[in-house]
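Structure first, sequence second, as always.
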């Protein structure tokens, strides 16, 4: 396991400490969990964006078809 150093504003650090305390964990554990979950978050975001683009295209095509009729 590797150690990393992260620099954040004091307010971000305080918020992270409060959040970690609420969930009975550490800031390090929160950051580690976030980094582990990044590939899943990326995939889900990409899929959601593709789905939204398909919906927008469908709406645009329907609007074009309606004005052409």
């Amino acid at each position: 396991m590797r150690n990393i150093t992260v620099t954040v504003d004091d307010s971000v650090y305080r918020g992270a400490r409060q959040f970690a305390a609420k969930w009975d964990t550490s800031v390090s554990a929160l950051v580690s969990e976030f980094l582990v979950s990044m590939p899943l978050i990326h995939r889900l975001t990409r899929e959601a964006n593709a789905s939204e683009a398909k919906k927008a295209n469908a709406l645009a095509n329907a609007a074009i078809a309606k004005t052409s009729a």
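Margin note: The chain has one domain: 10-68.
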